[in-house]
Amino acid sequence: MVQTDYFRFTDYDCIGFDLDNTLARYKVGAMIEMEYHILANFLVDNKGYSAKHLLKPLDHNFIIKGLIVDDENGNLLRISGDGTIIQVTHGTKFLTQNEIKKYYPNLRWKATDLFAQNPLQTWNGPYSEKMRTLLDYYDIVASLIFARAVDAIDEDSSEIKLYNIWPDLLDALQDMFTREHFQNEKGKYFSEIKANPDKYYYKCSSHLLKWINALRDSGKIIFLITGSYVDFATHTASHTLGPQWRSYFDIVISYAKKPGFFTERRDFIGLDGFTETGPVKLEDLKIGGIYTHGNWTDLKHFLARNYKQPNPRFLYVGDNLIQDIYAPHVYAGCETVTVCEELEAEGVYGHDKWHPDEQFLCSTIWGSYFKCKSSGRMTNWYEIMKNHSRFFIPSLEYAATFPIDHKFRTNIY
Ligand SMILES: [Mg+2]
């Protein structure tokens, strides 16, 4: 496609959306508080971690989206687009440049070098155990838990040690998000959200719902691809888009397992209510249908077949820079739009500084999400957004304040 200095939604024919933190906006501060409480208590109660350190009040200024965990060394990192390490804490303590170089000679580390080359190289396999990225509001609070656990271990002894905290933290995260827990009420996360939906979700405005319908009325095919299993996705979508949420989409894919959805060729699985039935062939996918798993290649054929004009143009809108932006752009040739609430929380790139949970999204100690305070270098996350999405928005609510064919300037980044 010809690169222009503007972006327009109506230049695309088949437009897909992620659900969580894209169409469905969360009250991020309340969610992070809740997640901190659940994860910290899990580690204290089940894994013997220090209550003194982990059960302190949440320090929201330490949290920022996009921190990278080095489990062996007990460090949290930020890197620039070329993989240079630009900021590091050991536990909660910020390191000087000289201290950083003791851990990472020449400010480089094999794991982050691989990640900078291609983030999917460290998504699975051996390096996924050495480094982890905390990319969205589901897991960013794990950074503070990790750092406090490191502080606790350091306080016990000053000898050099292996931290190996991540496997325990992963157990805690998996316990929180295990899909079965939505229905069997075993975990604390889903039962809390089910009991108090208004505390955690914003309802979509009537503007936004009309904007989606206006896209459909103009002949676009609209689809949803979410990682959530169908029961939780139904809960979230009903409380944000409304009880008629399915009517906004020509097809819904849940439990899509991004980024693999865009890189692999898994079968679509049919559903009977919330129960998976069996594989569904491409030719049997239906408009108005809902499925789990699946893959982009087949979905694209399905969308193209139903668009009824040759060579439709595809767009995907999401918030997770690896699952929703990098993977579809690089592996599936799909153009993307990034939803990034930090644009408003920081008040940058033409947006007014306004966000009810600014204190959770912004950090005076790390500095901007987009740019490193001390070195002045742009972060790798900024570079992924710039290189792999056509356009950034703070929310779909923002986009919906404009007509569907509005030309947004893109030469401001
Ligand atoms: Mg999301």
Explained architecture:
It comes from Rhynchophorus ferrugineus (Red palm weevil). Keywords: Acetylation, Hydrolase, Magnesium, Metal-binding. It is a single chain. The protein is α/β, with parallel strands linked by helices. It folds into 2 domains: 6-25 and 201-355 and 364-409, 3-Layer(aba) Sandwich (Rossmann fold), CATH 3.40.50; 29-195, no CATH class. It contains 19 helices and 16 strands. Strands 11-10-12-9-8-2-13-14-15 form a 9-stranded mixed beta sheet, sandwiched between helices. The radius of gyration is 21 Å and the shape is globular. The two termini are 20 Å apart. Magnesium ion binds at residues 18, 20-22, 136, 318-320. Residues 18, 20-22, 136, 318-320 line the site of magnesium ion (MG).
Secondary structure tally, helices: 19
Strand-residue proportion: 15-25%
**CATH top level class name of the largest domain:** Alpha Beta
Shape label:
globular
Rg from alpha-carbon coordinates? 21 Å
**What is the rounded distance between the termini?**
20 Å
Q: How many domains in all?
A: 2
Q: How are the strands of the biggest sheet laid out side by side?
A: 11-10-12-9-8-2-13-14-15
Brief sketch in words of this structure:
β4 and β5 form a beta hairpin.
Question: What is the topology?
Answer:
Blueprint: E1 6-7, E2 14-17, H1 28-47, H2 51-54, E3 67-70, E4 75-79, E5 85-90, E6 93-94, H3 97-103, H4 110-117, H5 127-130, E7 131-134, H6 142-156, H7 166-177, H8 181-184, H9 188-195, H10 197-200, H11 206-217, E8 221-225, H12 230-240, E9 251-254, H13 260-263, E10 268-272, E11 275-280, E12 289-293, H14 296-307, E13 314-318, H15 321-332, E14 335-339, H16 342-346, H17 358-361, H18 380-388, E15 391-393, H19 396-399, E16 408-409
The structure holds magnesium ion.
